[in-house]
Amino acid sequence: MQKPSQSENESRSQSGSANDATNITRLLLEHRSALMAYILAAVRNHADADDIFQESSLAIATSFSQLREENGFLPWAREIARRRILAHVRKHKQLLLIDDELLDKLCEAAERIDLMEQRRAESQRKTLHTCLEQLPTESRRMIAMRYDSPTPPVESIAQQFGRSVQGTYALLKRIRLVLRDCVDNKLSQEGSA
What we know:
The protein is an all-alpha fold and about 190 residues long. It is built from seven helices and no strands.
């Protein structure tokens, strides 16, 4: 068995670094508002919160390899932010408006809210899947094509189904409305049960 060359190892390393950078960026963008809200609740100053977020983002990027699972990103990132908050307060000799215990409770409450949101999103996904299964076969195929990656132009879908472009737009709109109503009805039934 032949050992990989140094250039192959470097290429793999660079590819891994690019993937990490993409993942870091995606996760930071996805959780930016939650992290900023957490930091702002602790320091109550937008300029300081921006500085702490930037410092936290840098720390997150440099220690990203320590993250075990992506779904644990927010609690992990929040802990990094908490440490940056405390360091910022010590550095600037400011009075921390929230003590450590309250900051920890804020972190726990934010994690519970995140968990509730994840459960709600999962419930919506399952309900949407159920509603998709109830569609007629042609409608299900058409909507699947429309939201496939990469998304084909509506003209291509219309041609494949032997329909006009305007008729396809209208049908896709009706299908989306049917799906929205189905999901809303099923979720409201779950909520009242």
